[in-house]
From TrEMBL:
InterPro entries: Bac_ResReg_Asp_Phosphatase (IPR051476), TPR-like_helical_dom_sf (IPR011990)
Entry GO terms, CC: cilium; cytoplasm
GO biological process, one term: cilium movement
Signal peptide range: 1-22
Name by which UniProt lists this protein: Tetratricopeptide repeat protein 29
Keyword Protein transport: no
Species in which this protein is naturally found: Lotharella globosa
Location of this chain's protein in the cell: Cytoplasm
Chief location bin: cytoplasm
Lineage, top ranks: Eukaryota, Sar, Rhizaria, Cercozoa, Chlorarachniophyceae
Keywords: Cytoplasm, Repeat, Signal, TPR repeat
């Protein structure tokens, strides 16, 4: 899918060597060529490659934008493997950023697609990451409660507590 032209051969080289330019080609050039040929699969691959390069260059915002574009392309073309890859990468990105609710949304989508595709390896890997994201999401709320001064809450609860059973009459 990457070899739609000579420039995409250079993109493949860029992916392997993790460099921005190779033989005068950039991944952006390959995206333009893929748009020209209306090859959505190659566009998705090129956008994913651009995202990984930007992530290597610590441009997290740019990587996130490219992954979102890849997800949009995958949704338009009904390319489930590309959508799986984009959702998974976006979920990882959101996990690293500490936005666990968004990570759960993306990872749940990736998990559902992996189950549709019957990709056992991806299902198992995403299940673990999804569990970590859900755990972190719940843990952050719990830690907020634990870090507050909760003595007042405990005392208020104890003072309002009802008896579970009325006292038993004593027998003579």
């Amino acid at each position: 899918a990457l070899f739609c032209c000579v420039l995409c051969c250079a993109l493949f080289c860029c992916v392997l060597l993790r460099v921005v330019a190779c033989w005068g080609c950039t991944p952006v050039t390959c995206v333009c060529v893929c748009f020209f040929f209306e090859d959505t699969n190659s566009q998705c691959e090129a956008r994913s490659t651009i995202a990984s390069i930007k992530q290597d260059q610590t441009d997290q915002k740019g990587a996130f934008d490219e992954l979102n574009k890849c997800l949009e392309l995958a949704n338009r073309s009904s390319n489930k493997p590309a959508k799986l890859k984009a959702c998974w990468a976006l979920g990882d990105y959101e996990m690293k950023a500490g936005r666990y609710a968004e990570a759960v949304d993306y990872l749940q989508g990736a998990f559902d697609i992996a189950r549709e595709l019957n990709d056992r390896s991806a299902v198992d890997k995403i299940r673990i990451i999804l569990g970590k994201a859900k755990g972190q999401m719940r843990l952050s709320g719990y830690m907020g409660i634990c870090q507050e001064d909760s003595l007042d809450k405990v005392l208020a609860w104890k003072s309002l507590r009802d008896e579970f059973a009325p006292p038993q009459p004593s027998q003579p």
